[in-house]
What does this fold into?
Amino acid sequence: MSTIGKNIRKIRTVKKLSQAAFAELFNLARPSVGAYEEERAEPKIETVIQIANHFGISIDSLLTKELTINELFKFDLHVEGLNQTKHKETRQAVESIKTVFVPASKQIEYQVQYNNKDFIARLPRVLIPGLGQDKLRAFELAAEEMQDNFRGLNNGDIIIGQFVKSDNYSKLTNNFVYVFVMRSEIIIRRYEKSGKKILLKADNLNYEAREIVSDEVLEIWEVLGFFTRQIKPPSLVVDRIMYLENTVQKLEMRLNSLENKSSQ
It folds into this structure.
């Protein structure tokens, strides 16, 4: 049984769904669900995305590992390559909470009404691990500045931040990623204080560091992790063939070595 097939069966079992009920949720034929679970077929990527979004599971986890029962009720929060030294505990199982989500389409309006409680109340919510923090906010990344050779943060990722007072730069850590809500835009980059200069650095080397003025900063959110919509490609047949070829080559070398020794 493939990983996705095992996970679909586990999800159905935990959620107490029949194959017919599961199929109805995602506009599938009931036999298709059975085929996925029995490794006779693989769901389309559109279906995988729907399943992941519906049950609050990361696409990467759904495709690449067998899910635990605990994970079926939690998001997979990524922290690698960001502020992981400070936030190793974020992968622990904690109670999930709903927090305000600022999609790309609302970010200009957010810059104007970030203090307007009615506007904040109308924004959508996303379910995330509580992380033991009091004030969290989610932002959609609408740029490619933090994409490092297809690693790191990607356009469309959902960034989870913890509130930091905008006038307290002593709490900011060099090289950590922060969300800076400016008067003119929202910037998600790495922070660096150099003397009196405040620089925001991109992981994408095609973008230069930007110097900002503290008076222009409305809010700062320290990035704790992110939800990615990017899917790691499966192992290609070509990769497997290359592995087999390398293995055969090593065996041939060992056989030649043994033959040379026996002939001496």
Summary: The chain has a mean pLDDT of 79. The domain at 3-73 is CATH 1.10.260.40 (434 Repressor (Amino-terminal Domain)).
